[in-house]
UniProtKB/TrEMBL annotation, chains A, B:
Cofactors (names): Mn(2+)
Organism: Sylvia borin
Subcellular location: Endoplasmic reticulum membrane
Keywords for this protein: Disulfide bond, Glycoprotein, Glycosyltransferase, Manganese, Membrane, Metal-binding, Signal-anchor, Transferase, Transmembrane, Transmembrane helix
Annotated function: Glycosyltransferase required for the biosynthesis of heparan-sulfate and responsible for the alternating addition of beta-1-4-linked glucuronic acid (GlcA) and alpha-1-4-linked N-acetylglucosamine (GlcNAc) units to nascent heparan sulfate chains.
GO terms classed as biological process: N-acetylglucosamine metabolic process; UDP-N-acetylgalactosamine metabolic process
Keyword Membrane: yes
Protein family: Belongs to the glycosyltransferase 47 family.
EC number(s) from the headed UniProt entry: 2.4.1.223
Protein name (Swiss-Prot/TrEMBL): Exostosin-like 2
Top-level taxon of the source organism: Eukaryota
Lineage, uppermost ranks: Eukaryota, Metazoa, Chordata, Craniata, Vertebrata
GO CC field: endoplasmic reticulum membrane
Length: 330, 330
């Protein structure tokens, strides 16, 4: 009920205006609220672009990495390695890709032996596939992924340094195991390491791949891997091999540069002899290396060209382990 | 003179229009021509910006470098070194900065012992200044400059590799001699090499400067050096030292990153003992290193802050000289 002033003509108009304005304001607020809900979630997990300024992120996401370790038939090695890797500086989380189909994960044991420095997630797989580790895991919160084979031990010093190198080269695969392809006069490519002739660019050798079984890479490449031609998945599944070669093709194609940056490890060890399982890894299969040459040629067909590029840059840590490791006669 | 059709009213109008149009077109062409003359000359000698796409240039300018060698009182070493450096792959030209005031250059002898693989220009100086080598020489046609002291011999293998590294890091000083500064609790900085304690970033050592007496750098920094505060020139002239420290300050300030990238040399030699002149270089003066610490602190004052940043990246050539120099137990 209005009082005396409401009855004044001007005031009547004023009240109506006031009501109208109030309604308009309320409607606008509701519309604004609705629009806010429609805003896309800001995702910053795109592939790195050297032109971008660093965005403000939680320290954690930028300054730490997630370890992805795929495991098959070597749980004793896995557990030994988890004890090592759980304590690496800048580690955010561990994702164990559990390829032991139908077998219980050691999660219970893991929990009973806590507390642990970082969380570990066991991702139970339904099919034992080599490429299971290349999924775009929703558990990933960091930009950087450290991928490690379940029989490989790399020292904390090497990892801390390589991580700092990756942060300077986030669009590359920064790791410890370099390999190369070579051309032959027939046009058929072959895969190998330094025992093969250098690709002929002057002095020394070149590498064109860095294996992902001991390397840092940007999580965006896992996202990217989901959009590859079906033939790539078929190749990896057919060979149970070459997921790392495929990843190098992907990165090289995307960046137009050498896919990897090689960091020379001071202390890297293969523990496969230490396993009780008797299982000694896919690379012992007779056809393993021939398969990898086969994969290189198949991938060239699939990608309609050879995107891999050569590099001869070898990075070591200045003054470590020997504080005078850079000394010379000058 | 027009013919019969000119007399027709419509045609009269047509002719006038035609004349008018012709005059307009001619005037426009003249104006366009004049504007073309006013267009700025496209200069591509600005400092490198990692965001830029490579411009189409003559192969020569992009794929070769200019050696700048300043010399004082060591002509015998100079000539020995010229015989070495004149044959380095990818060398475009040599600029000798002749600090022997009033003395004839060896140009006549040089010419009489031709032909030579590359042209050499002797730049006669009027005052013996350390910073003479940091002029923006109009003789420079390449983006890359290799600066070398007149007593330093670096192998062709090292230079070819370091040049390829510079091409990947053109905004850095890419060279063979790393140094660092350290902070002390008093806030006073000190200059030194690896014998000084590491700056405290975990394992190993760090460097914050790469000396320009054996390094590749972008010619744009010579241009940039001409625009520094007068106090910088005064400091270099007063000490006859520290031009290289000043250059590292300049680069670090400009890029916001570590100024240098250290490439570990395989074969670098100091020939100063071989000179007949008896002159053994500025760095033998008693006060040389103290001067350099002094310079660091003065430059911090001049630039109102410490722009130098640390790096621990050491680059070597993959597979050279030992083709298995990256081998490990994997």
């Amino acid at each position: 009920r209005c009082f005396h002033f409401c009855k004044l003509p001007g005031r009547v108009m004023g009240i109506r205006l006031l009501r109208f304005t109030s309604v308009v304001i309320i409607v606008l607020l509701l519309v604004a609220g609705a629009l806010t809900a429609l805003l896309p979630t800001i995702k910053d997990d795109k592939l790195p672009n050297s032109r971008r300024e660093p965005k403000t992120q939680s320290q954690s996401a930028l300054d730490s990495f997630t370890l992805i370790m795929q495991t098959y038939n070597r749980t004793d090695l896995l557990l030994k390695l988890l004890n090592h890797y759980q304590a690496i500086p800048h580690l955010h989380k561990i994702i164990v890709v559990w390829n032991n189909i139908g077998e219980k994960t050691p999660e219970e044991m893991w929990n009973s032996l806590g507390p642990h420095p970082v969380p570990v997630v066991f991702k139970v797989q339904t099919v034992n596939r080599m490429r299971n580790r290349l999924q775009n895991f929703p558990d990933l919160e960091t930009k950087a992924v450290l991928m490690m084979d379940d029989d490989t031990l790399v020292s904390a010093h090497d990892l801390a340094f390589a991580f700092s190198v990756w942060q300077q080269f986030p669009e590359h695969i920064v790791g410890f195991v370099p390999r190369k392809h070579i051309s032959t006069p027939s046009g058929v490519y072959s895969y190998g390491s330094f025992e093969l002739q250098n690709p002929g660019f002057g002095n020394g050798d070149q590498y064109s791949m860095v294996l992902i079984g001991a390397a840092f890479l940007h999580r965006g490449y896992l996202e990217d891997f989901q959009q590859q031609p079906e033939a790539v998945y078929a190749l990896i599944d057919e060979t149970q091999n070459c997921d790392d070669i495929a990843m190098n093709f992907l990165v090289a194609k995307r960046t137009g540069k050498p896919s990897g940056v090689f960091v020379k490890p001071v202390d890297i060890r293969n523990l496969e002899k230490d396993t009780n399982s008797g299982y000694s890894g896919m690379w012992h299969r007779a056809e393993h290396l021939l398969q990898r040459s086969y994969c290189v040629n198949k991938l060239v067909n699939i990608y309609d060209g050879m995107p891999l590029k050569y590099s001869n840059i070898m990075i070591s840590q200045f003054g470590f382990p020997n504080y005078a490791n850079h000394k010379n006669k000058m």
